[in-house]
Amino acid sequence: MDDERLRAARARLMVRRLAPSFLYNPAYRVSMVDFGIPIRAEAADERPTIRFHVPQKLSRTQLERAGIEAVPRQIGEFVTDVIEGAYVPHIWNWWYPPQPPTGGARARHDPMRGGISISVARDYSAGTLGGLVRDRATGELMILSNWHVLAAERWVAAGLPICQPGRLDGGMPYDIVATTMRHAMRQKIDAAVATLTGDRSLVNNQLNIGSVTGVALPRLGMRITKSGRTTGVTEGIITGVEGQTRLWYGSMQRTIEHVMTIVPTPGKREVSAGGDSGSWWLDADTYAAVGLHFAGSDDPEQALAIDMLSVLDALNVEIVTERTSVTDRRRPEAAVREAWQAVEREMLETLAR
């Protein structure tokens, strides 16, 4: 293992071990810990490092006056960085003005595809239909999006009706296209699947992008793209991986793991907004699915997504693509999973040292 890969493995291990002690300690006011690209202006070492995300960056004096503990400037060999970001789940809720369907992502689609409006039928909200997946055990076709888009309740039972477009975009009871099947919040992953009713078909296509080709692991510096209900097609760059964050979902605070941080590409101002929750982030070059969008920050502009392989494994589903036959459909995910397991082995080797 070369020095940089060994260093990265050590950092990822530290993030996993240390994150809870900062996230669950109110004295620090830390909302996320990850491994990523530093942005500190005075940095002499520009290599990826351990990063602490806070709602607002304060000076040492301001921290002391507010009674907030400063995060350590260095952990082992890593000079840490502090990233500003006030993250919230990216669903479009009832307190915003209703958005009648005017075409595009917010309209009624038949067949359906990724990147369009969807919501629980009884909630005046709107999120994004992520895409088409298949149950690994039964072969049943399903919609994959966020828990807070397809369920949004702590003890939600299977069978919750889902409509397309979402209720805030004019969805009506006769627009029900699926029913909630299961979610992964118990595994600290904001994701859920809903079984199609058969009234409308769902195809492997992301609105205004194209077909999803498979699954890929997130990499620092990777250029990615998504199609969302609110901001449409945007591009971003992954600046952080392996994150753990604590977000407020209404009155509940929940921990989400396997998080990546995304910033706009140079020259762009927007990467995501409320209503984009559930979008799939794809490798901009191959259109392989990399992450499931679930939250973001407006100032500074950043998006949060969950590693797609972790999402698929937690829900026991696989992405339906057009490039593989039924008999070979598991090979792309198996290759990605093998690569991820190699990273895990590197971490364990580091721990053994």
UniProtKB/TrEMBL annotation:
InterPro entries: Peptidase_S1_PA, Peptidase_S1_PA_chymotrypsin. It comes from the Bacteria. This is Uncharacterized protein.
